[in-house]
Specification:
With 261 residues, this protein is α/β, with parallel strands linked by helices. The protein is built from eight helices and nine strands. α1 packs across α2.
Length: 261
C-alpha cells in the first residue's frame, strides 16, 4: 500500500526538524550541516529543514567510512568559510560519530530514522577558507554534492540557491499533476536529489523505493509519469511501462517515440 503525505504535512514536519536544528546550533550562525544517511522520508525533511534554517547542507554518501564522511563534511564547510556544526546520520551509526566527539542533540524526536548530532569544534587551516562565499547575497551557498572519490577524498561542488532549485515552470509542463518521481538512487547523488527538489517546486509527487525489494513492482504502485533512472535501468523501465508511457505521452501531446520525462 502506498500512503502519500501531503505538502502541508511535509512542510509542518520539516518545520519541526528545523526547530530542532535551530535549538541545537542557533539561528544566527548555523554553519554547515552534513547529511550522511540512507534514503528515507526523513532525509528529505532534513534537507528542506536546512533551507528553512539557512544552514548549507553537504550531502554525503552514507556508505563512506565515518572518518571519511566527517572529513568530507569539514572540507566542504571550510571551502565556504563556515564551520561544520551538525550531522544527520542513520540512527544505527550515530555511535560511530559520537566516538569522534559528536554530541547527540537533545531533540524532541521529529525524525526517528536519522539522528541529529552537534559537531565538535575544529581548527581548520586558514588557507582552506580562501574560497569562501558570502552567506547572503546572489551567491549564497545552499548545498554541496560530492565527486565519487575515485582519485582520492570526494571533492565538494557547491551550489547557490539560484542554480540549485529548478524554478522554470516549463520543466514540468505537459506532465499530469499526479506525476511521481520514484527515487531509488541515493539522495546524496545529484540527479536523484535535483529530481526531488524539482517535484517539490512544481507540485509533483515523490516515491521512496526500497532498493532491496522488487523495484519494478514498487514503481508500478506509484503509476509514475516521470522516472529518474540510470540509462541501463531506464531501458528496463521503458519496456515494462511502455503502454503507460505511451498513454502519458499522448496526454502530454508528445509523439509515442519521443523520450519521456
Amino acid at each position: 500500500e502506498v500512503v502519500w503525505q501531503s505538502f502541508a504535512e511535509t512542510g509542518a514536519a520539516a518545520e519541526r526538524v528545523a526547530a530542532e536544528l535551530r535549538a541545537a546550533v542557533g539561528d544566527e550562525a548555523p554553519g554547515v550541516a552534513m547529511i550522511a544517511a540512507k534514503n528515507s522520508v526523513e532525509w528529505v525533511l532534513v534537507d528542506v529543514a536546512c533551507v528553512y534554517v539557512g544552514a548549507p547542507s553537504a550531502a554525503i554518501d552514507a556508505t563512506l567510512a565515518t572518518e571519511t564522511a566527517v572529513a568530507c563534511g569539514r572540507g566542504a564547510a571550510a571551502e565556504i568559510g563556515q564551520p561544520l556544526r551538525a550531522a544527520y546520520v542513520d540512527a544505527d551509526r550515530a555511535h560511530e560519530y559520537e566516538a569522534l566527539g559528536f554530541v547527540r542533540a537533545a531533540t524532541t524526536g521529529a525524525t526517528t530514522a536519522i539522528v541529529l548530532l552537534v559537531a565538535p569544534p575544529s581548527n581548520e587551516p586558514a588557507s582552506l577558507r580562501s574560497l569562501a562565499w558570502p552567506r547572503y547575497g546572489p551567491k549564497r551557498a545552499v548545498t554541496a554534492l560530492f565527486t565519487s572519490g575515485s582519485t582520492g577524498l570526494p571533492k565538494p561542488r557547491w551550489f547557490a540557491d539560484q542554480n540549485w532549485v529548478d524554478r522554470n515552470p516549463r520543466a514540468a509542463s505537459g506532465r499530469p499533476f499526479a506525476s511521481c518521481a520514484p527515487v531509488f538512487q541515493p539522495l546524496s547523488h545529484g540527479l536523484a536529489r535535483r529530481q526531488v527538489w524539482r517535484e517539490i517546486s512544481h507540485g509533483g509527487r515523490i516515491g521512496m523505493v526500497d532498493t532491496t525489494d522488487e523495484l519494478i513492482r514498487q514503481i508500478g504502485l506509484f503509476e509514475p509519469s516521470g522516472v529518474t533512472a540510470i540509462p541501463s535501468f531506464f531501458v528496463l523501465l521503458q519496456d515494462r511501462f511502455r503502454a503507460h508511457l505511451a498513454a502519458a505521452a499522448a496526454a502530454a501531446g508528445r509523439a509515442p517515440d519521443e523520450p519521456p520525462t
